[in-house]
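Q: Hi! First time doing this. I have a protein sequence and I read that you can turn it into a structure. Is that right? Here it is:
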Amino acid sequence: MTVSKLTVAVPVYNERERVGAAMKELLSTPLPVETEVIVVDDGSTDGTWEQLAQLPLPEHVRLIRHPRNKGKGAALRTALDAATGDVFVPFDADLEYDASDLAACLQPLIRGDTDVVYGTRAFGSHTAFSFWFVIGNKLLALWTNVLFNCYLSDIETCFKMARTEVLRGISLRSDDFDIEAELTAKLLRAGHRPYEVPINYKARTREQGKKIEWQDGVRALWVIARIRYGGR
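A: Yes, that's right. Below is the predicted 3D structure, encoded as structure tokens:
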């Protein structure tokens, strides 16, 4: 199957200080296929939507707004419903990820090697949010590998690139950050084994707006186990 169009979903919530730079980086990144960008403002209250409205965005960028905050998962599902590309990938507007890595992630799909690619992060002292953040990420990967008899190194990465029809076929339901765990567990349960591509990463601090909490990791453990043993 060929790749003719990529949909990049950008969920944003209270990112007024960063969304302009993130969009500039994304839109200036050359990609080997036609691209559409769907930005979903998830009920921001800090002026993010107004900032987006003022940006000189090209025609292939679409803006969608949730009237109230629903969560990252809900924003991604909104973008997935609206996507017209045959490949779909999230791109967070927090400047933790490098848009140029999207091209590398596309290559296994273009070659026909896989239907799912994960951009996997290598944590170092200058890239990690905290020691416990990294340990929690590794624990989630280990838990997933044990339950599904696979070997994934990073299940929480933002760069989960897959054929749109595959994502629509696994019936995502999560509204919050546990969308990452749900997506991985349902892909694995459906028989997909993500192709891993190394990517760049630099975590921001809590003071810079890091939103994920330890409770999100606990929920992710439960979501993975529930789906592994037959839950929806």
